[in-house]
User: Fold this.
Amino acid sequence: MSHPLTVAPNTDPTALYRYRDGLYAEDLLILALVRMDFFTALAAEPTDLEGLRQRHQLHERPADVMVTLFRAMGLIKWCNGRYEVTETAREHLVSTSRWFLGPYYESLVDRPVVKDLQRVLQTDKPANWGSQTSQPDWHKAMEKPDFARQFTQAMDCRGVFLARALAEHLPIGESRSLLDIAGGSGIYACSLCAHFRELRATVLEKPPVDAICAQAIAARGFSDRVQVVAGDMLNAPLPRGHDLHLYSNVLHDWDVPVVRDLLARSFEALPSGGRLLIHDAFLNRDKSGPLHVAEYSVMLMHATQGRCYGVGEMETWLRATGFIDCLELPGGAARSGLIARKP
Assistant:
């Protein structure tokens, strides 16, 4: 933890991030092909998202994740207001085709994640973390000190690379005080402070993560510039006195109503001219990809209450909240930033 946060690795780890992030995508394909006969039904009668939901008894959030994945995989397409199968799906995933691959996938349908995903589609409730029966869903598991420490350390090692990549493209402007909301180990706050000497930061975290965060910040030698405040972003007003708010890999854990509530909380707490920075894995504007983000969205759908959001979706919600001047920022490993300003 003592190495400088401004130094880039010699090699690009993006592929290694994608291997982990996309682990559950194939399980969703197995479920749709074998249990739901999704592609045969869609080939016979193209329909929109609501039609798919009614046909297969699906909730909106997981259904959105599923169709986004299959679009990104090149298996379905959006045409004239409805979803249709592509030629690839028609030849290989429709049961009446001579090249049907259903039996090839059938032996895998009892995989634990396949069963989890079926329950999520039908109930919209997160599954156990990592499909472990000994663990509750991610939100509940984070209340346990041992799990919270393990998970926070996992996100910390990811953030060492991602935070630097974000900082290199961040127009810091006049921002001097950062509020890192649900900031985990504080890796993003520390990294931004390492890149911008005039910046000071506060990490807002719930117990027991707040204590884990304070230890990590101290180990990195940033305790003089980064403090930790215990608090719940969902149940109390956000601390004031900061001109830059950051949600890094946070909003994707929550469904749309919570996301919009958090944007409103930041708008309320920021001063005029203050800015909101969202760092995440974003889908493109028409939510047809990229594939690696659509795959990651399946993992989020499985274990959290959220999913990956499109750039257009997030910009719409930011503007509806009152933010202006939305700007996209490059990042690392399929992540990027959106920054907007309060008038």
